[in-house]
TrEMBL record:
Chain positions recorded as NADPH binding sites: T15, G16, S17, I18, N129, E131, G215
Domain DXP reductoisomerase C-terminal intervals: 271-387
Annotated 1-deoxy-D-xylulose 5-phosphate reductoisomerase N-terminal domain residues: 9-137
Domain 1-deoxy-D-xylulose 5-phosphate reductoisomerase C-terminal intervals: 151-239
Organism from which the protein derives: Halomonas colorata
Keywords: Isoprene biosynthesis, Magnesium, Manganese, Metal-binding, NADP, Oxidoreductase
Record-listed E.C. numbers: 1.1.1.267
Residues given in the record as 1-deoxy-D-xylulose 5-phosphate binding sites: K130, S156, E157, S186, H209, S222, N227, K228, E231
Classification lineage: Bacteria, Pseudomonadati, Pseudomonadota, Gammaproteobacteria, Oceanospirillales
InterPro entries in alphabetical order: DXP_reductoisomerase, DXP_reductoisomerase_C, DXP_reductoisomerase_N, DXPR_C, DXPR_C_sf, NAD(P)-bd_dom_sf
Protein name: 1-deoxy-D-xylulose 5-phosphate reductoisomerase
Amino acid sequence: MSQPPIQQITVLGSTGSIGISTLDVIARHPDRYRVYALTAHTSKEALLDQCLAHRPRVAVLDQETDALWLRQALDDAGQATEVLAGGEALCQVAREASVDTVMAAIVGAAGLLPALAAVQAGKRVLLANKEALVLSGALFMQAVERSGATLLPIDSEHNAIYQCLPKEHRGGLGKYGVKQLLLTASGGPFRTWSAADIASATPDQACAHPNWSMGRKISVDSATLMNKGLELIEACWLFDTTPEQIQVVVHPQSVIHSMAAYVDGSVIAQLGNPDMRTPIAYGLAWPERIEAGVETLDLFQIARLDFETADEVRFPCLRLARESIQKGGAAPAILNAANEIAVAAFLEETIAFNAIAEIVAHVLSLPYDGDADSIENVLAADQWAREQAAQFVEQR
Ligand SMILES: NC(=O)C1=CN([C@@H]2O[C@H](COP(=O)(O)OP(=O)(O)OC[C@H]3O[C@@H](n4cnc5c(N)ncnc54)[C@H](OP(=O)(O)O)[C@@H]3O)[C@@H](O)[C@H]2O)C=CC1
Ligand SMILES: CC(=O)[C@@H](O)[C@H](O)COP(=O)(O)O
Ligand SMILES: [Mn+2]
C-alpha cells in the first residue's frame, strides 16, 4: 500500500494541554506528520524544549523580547527555526501555503483570528478552541463554506457527535433522521457539593477535574458548567441545530463522550477513556484511524455508567449560555468575554467562585446595541464586555 504524503502541521497553542497531546500523537507518526510551526503566548522555555524535540520551521511567541530570547537559545543550540512575535505571526503560520493542517488550541477569544485565518486559507482545521465558535459561529461557519476548509471538531463531545453522525450532516440534522444530540457533561469537581461549599471553592479545587487533565481556564469552566454552555453553543454551529435539539446529560464517568439520538429510537454513542489524544488522532488522520497511545476502554473496570440532569440552580452558567444563544446576535460573544474576565479574576483570587456567574449575568443584562455581523463587530462586542466585566470586578 502506498504511504500518504507527509502532512505539515501548525500547532497553535502548542505549550498547552491540547498542544502537548497533539505533539505526542504527531511524534508517534513521523512517517505521516511533520511540525511546521509551534506557538505559545509567554512559555518560552517550554517552547524552546518543543522546538528542540520537533524541529519546526517557525516558532511564535507574543512578545518580541521573548522571541529574541528564543532566537538566541535556538541559535546557541545550532537550530535554524525562525522565531516570530505577535498576533499577525499567528495568522501567518496558520495560513502558510505549505501547511496542510492547523491545530487551533489557543485558549479563549485570542484564538479566533488565527483559527479563522486557517479556515480562510482552506486548511484542515482541528478546532479545539471552542471560544472561536461561541464568539463568531455564523461568520466562522460561513468562512468554512466559502473556503472549502475541512473543519474537524476536537472538543471531545463534538468529536464524539461527529463520529455518531452520518458523513454529510451539514444543512440540518432532520433530513438524516437525527432527532436530538445528547451532550454529556462530567458535572465537574463540584457536582456533589452543596451550594454553600461551592461558594467558598478555591481555584485549585475548581481546577481538580475528576476525569480530565486540562488547562486552568477550561477547568474552571467545567466547574461552573460554563464549559457545557459554551459547548452547547459550539454544537449548534458545528451541527446546524437549535439549542432545543441538544440535551445536556450529566455523566460523571466521562466514558460516553456524547450521543446522537435518531427518529427510529437508535441512540449512537462514542465511548473511550478520557484522553484527548483520541479526538486529536481522529482529527489528524480522518477519515483514516491511527494509533493514539490510548488504552482500549476496559468496561469491566468501569463497571457502571450513571446519568443525571444538570442542576442549573447551583450552576447558573449553563442557563446563561443557553439564553445567550437563544437571544443570538452579540450575546454569546458578550457571555464569553465576561466569562474570560471573571475566570481570570477567580484564578487570581480577586473574586469568589459564585461571582463568575454573577459577573456574566450582570454584563449580559446591560444594554448593548452592536451587531455580530462582521468580525470587527464581534471583536467590538468582546472588547465592550471585557470592559464592563472588569469594571464590575473592580467595584466588588
Ligand atoms: N484541555 C483540554 O482537554 C480541552 C481543551 N479544549 C479547548 O482547547 C483550547 C486550549 O485548551 P488548553 O490546552 O486546556 O489550554 P491551556 O491553557 O493548557 O493552553 C493554552 C495555549 O494557548 C496559548 N495562549 C494562551 N493565551 C494566548 C494568547 N493570548 N495568545 C496566543 N496564545 C495564547 C498558551 O501559551 P502559554 O503556554 O505561553 O500560556 C498555550 O499554548 C481551549 O479553547 C479549550 O476550551 C477543548 C476540549 C478539551
Ligand atoms: C475533554 C473535554 O472535551 C472537556 O471539554 C471536557 O468535556 C470537560 O468536562 P466537563 O465540562 O464535561 O466537566
Ligand atoms: Mn469538551
